[in-house]
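Progress narrative, Year 2. Work on Efflux RND transporter periplasmic adaptor subunit from Dankookia rubra advanced from sequence curation to structure prediction during this period.
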Amino acid sequence: MTTRSTFLVGTVAGLIGIAIAAMPPVAGVLHRFVGSSVPGRVATPPQTAADEDRAPEGVIRMDEQQVQELGIRVQPVAGGTIVRNVHVPGTVVASGDRLVRVPARVSGIVAELHRRPGDQVAVGDLLAVIESREIADAKADLLAAQHIEQLARTTFERERRLWDRRVSAEQDFLKARANAEDARLRLDLARQKLAALGLGEAEVAALARQPVTALPRKEIRAPIAGQVTERSVDLGGAVSPETQAFVVVDLSTVWVETAVPAADLAFVREGQVVTVSGPIPGLRGEARLIFISPTLDSQTRAARAVAEMANPDGAWRPGIFVAASVQTAEQPVQILLPRDAIQTIDNRPAVFIRTERGFERREVTLGRTDDRAAEVVSGLAGGEPVAVARTFLLKAELKSGSED
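Result:
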């Protein structure tokens, strides 16, 4: 090799050495791209601040302000009472104890009408006037009986004074006494006849002061306070004693008629509380069972049951269809939660426990339930703070977090 060749080889070798010295170590390059200098190990991305703040599974980060804005209500776990209910449909009807069908009671012609359906009436208010020969004859008989009784009484008093002085014969005294007793009996019978025709004591007492033209007049008056719901007579129309002239109903108390299936009759008793819900939102009331039929309907195989309910404002109108819930039994439990507090997550019942930084999902085991609450037999301890309202928002947030 010549001196020139030796120089070139040396120069190239020096340049290669300088390049190798300038390169980083191989291990450092692998570590930079793979994350480890150990062959076959998968790299782990470096953690960020967001990754470090991510909530663990089943935990929802939420401060107090967010809880208030979302309307999530929290309360400590406590005991309560499970209520067993029997649910049946029903209908509001007028109370059989507060409905009066007002008959004409006499034959005659309707001379006056003073009330129409829908009118409110008080006890004794005038409904109609009937002109009747029957009532005129009965009044005339009473007036005649009063006159005869007064004359017989006067005669008896005179004969008694004479007999006491031994001036008249005993036979005259006894005859006068018999006539007075007979006259009093006839007067009582005349009064009873007028009472059967619907005249009150005040009307009978006023007969003697009335003109003869008022004898055929028969007044029909309201027997109870309430509302006129029916009127089946017209002005100038003929009536008979059996004619139902008016129907007056006191709707301050109504009945709820239901049909209880045979399978539920063992749990239903008279005196139990019935919660009634109407077709209008917010229309709810409380009734009490007063009657359960001892027999079943041959077609429905259910027993008629009647509950009595106060109706002071008249909101419960006869004919309204309602949903009735009969409270049949109460059972105390150690831990009771509203149904809104319980969510189904992964096919398991769960609740949300309030923590310092938010909420934590916890699976629970349920026991007995009713329409509004459920018993928790495991998974919770008394006094723990649990979300009991709008928990569906927490379920949605939990699901959203797991998808991220």
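Residues 11 and 332 are 99 Å apart (CA to CA). The first helix runs from residue 3 to 22.
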